[in-house]
Amino acid sequence: MTGTGSELTEGEHERFCNLIYRVAGIRIPGTKRVMVATRVRKRLKATGISSFSAYLNFLNSAAGAGEMPMFLDVMTTNETYFYRDPHHYDWFDQTFLPEVIQRARLRKRPRSLRVWSAASSTGEELYSIALKVVGHRPELNGWKLTLLGTDLSGAVLEAARAGVYDDRALHLVGDEERRAYFTHDPVARTWTLSREVQAAATFKTHNLLEPLNEEPFDCIFIKNVLIYFDAESKKTVVQHLLAALAKGGYLVVGPSEGIYTMLGALTKHKSWLYQKPA
């Protein structure tokens, strides 16, 4: 049976899933056919294409190259909030930053700091990092700071650059930080991040299956994304993460990434914290 805008066949669902895996390394279960159909319909409406099969053909054609990012935008799930896994940020604020600052004072490292939030979604993770860095600004005066957030989806990165969030995204942010670094709009029920914190962060599009091609990072956060990748894709991502991590640098991982057996080249400090040998 041929698929239309109202029905997605099993074969077409499989083709969409294979395409997503080939391009992004993400596995969509066969049980998610309704979800896939619902999200693809948004692109059918936007492009004016009348059927799932025609849209698949378009995506696989040279003419559909510009549509692929839009397709991936609607297919990737992006849910996060400030200070998700609070102990990660407590470590970053109370242990990592003081350690880096002290080593620089002793001239054991340059006065620079590079942090990468991989799969940063709408920016809450990188901005959580930025809030901690800004909190140490007197000690970091004159430092070269690079806080980079990357994601496959251009749409979520645009939202990150806007720096506007709802109450749910800030439910773990304390009143003092809200007053210092956010402007509240009680009518829209939104919170806009200060220019100071926004200016500390940079965002760009990146596929984790590809090398980042940046200078090494002192700390990399990758959380709540690799659960969607299979073993081979995870190995590729880990290879790229290790290549991007500076000697002595730290890798912070989420509780469900499933890459722990692949991190043998790193020293394990906690179930979520690993360090590259110096």
TrEMBL record:
This is protein-glutamate O-methyltransferase. Residues 1-259 form the CheR-type methyltransferase domain. One of its GO terms (biological process) is methylation. Keywords: Methyltransferase, S-adenosyl-L-methionine, Transferase. It holds the Pfam family CheR. Signal peptide: none annotated. It comes from Singulisphaera acidiphila (strain ATCC BAA-1392 / DSM 18658 / VKM B-2454 / MOB10). It catalyses: L-glutamyl-[protein] + S-adenosyl-L-methionine = [protein]-L-glutamate 5-O-methyl ester + S-adenosyl-L-homocysteine. One of its GO terms (molecular function) is protein-glutamate O-methyltransferase activity. Its EC number is 2.1.1.80. InterPro entries: Bact_Chemotaxis_MeTrfase, Chemotaxis_MeTrfase_CheR, CheR_C, CheR_MeTrfase, CheR_N, CheR_N_sf, SAM-dependent_MTases_sf. Transmembrane segments: none annotated.
